[in-house]
Design goal:
homodimer, about 240 residues, alpha+beta, Phosphorylase Kinase, domain 1, D-amino Acid Aminotransferase, Chain A, domain 1, five-stranded antiparallel sheet, about 35% strand
Amino acid sequence: MVKKELLYEGKAKKIYTTEKEDKLVVEYKDDATAFNGKKKGQIQNKGVLNAEISTIFFELLAEKGVPTHLIEQLNEREVLVKRLEIIPVEVVMRNIAAGSLARRLGLEEGTVLKRPVLEFYYKDDDLGDPMINEYHIYARELATEEDVNVIKELSFKINDILVEFLKAKEIDLVDFKLEFGKGLDGKIYLGDEISPDTCRFWDSETKKKLDKDRFRRDLGEVEDAYQEILRRLKN
Amino acid sequence: MVKKELLYEGKAKKIYTTEKEDKLVVEYKDDATAFNGKKKGQIQNKGVLNAEISTIFFELLAEKGVPTHLIEQLNEREVLVKRLEIIPVEVVMRNIAAGSLARRLGLEEGTVLKRPVLEFYYKDDDLGDPMINEYHIYARELATEEDVNVIKELSFKINDILVEFLKAKEIDLVDFKLEFGKGLDGKIYLGDEISPDTCRFWDSETKKKLDKDRFRRDLGEVEDAYQEILRRLKN
């Protein structure tokens, strides 16, 4: 599949059109950003690592019946995907308190939540991606009630699949971000990526962080952590 | 009903026990606070005005089938209520964008929302009463799913009743806060108050603010605004 023109360049990925209207090429970059773009850097080989890690997760989810945008990995940095119209709402699923949830609820980082928590965020850089709820989504007409119900159901299902899969790899899935979009067929698919950029992964035993928090919080060994995740996923 | 001992003193009210275990006396104060207690002042006659205004709203809601804590107004500042165990979650209902919602969604103040918005806030002064969602409520065990469903249903019903009632008084109900609690019978009742302290009321024609925003934003004529609301409610 030949890339035609650059459609969009984001913080961590470039998106290209192809000769097929309904297919896009996603190229994973080594660039890393945090805090709504205020912190910038590079993580060596991140693009290559995340392309492979995300493909493993998306193939697992597809096997379990989750509709995803993934068609196939093309090469070490590039993935072919279904073109989606992205819904401007990010879903964050949480199993263990960390980051903004720990601050919001006054919980110590590491507190296991009694039930998984789903949060919606409005994808809007100028507003700082604020947390919103379903009623905000309807009032702003960001998605219909029917779409939100499908997204919620898929998000909890994805959480169950990933928690179980990662548990066997001795990884705690602390929290992660999902994005959904509509295909040309009008159906909802999981889009974007699932990687150490978009998840918090902790070693189940030592609780060592194996994700982008190592970059956000200047903990060092960032590439090693991404490598370690890939190594465990392939075992 | 004779007041026994001071059970609790809040920013705008004092709560007293009575000789009956299941009944409390609420005394409305003239004290006004804003911004989580950072701004403090007094609004002359506020206690008297809010006691009467809130009683009018609670009697209206009771007539329409909403279970409330109100038993009767005892005198100009005091109201007799059912004792509730307050659920530590505030509900904010919104019909028109203002305040934090306008900021959160990047909407101009005064934008009429396509659908009413319900928001939950965690009643915790130390955390600054953060916005939360249903899943946070369940994870923190602040209320059960059954209770949350009752609270949501009552909140939308209350909004419908108040919007219609106030429309006839040429008042726009922009947004308002509700608190719920459980009676000794285990049922959910509407508690707290409904007044210009807890609602945004705008004149339908001129959009003049007739509520605590006059105090928050130093707009002057604060007591006049509360008086005007009471005058219209009694007409």
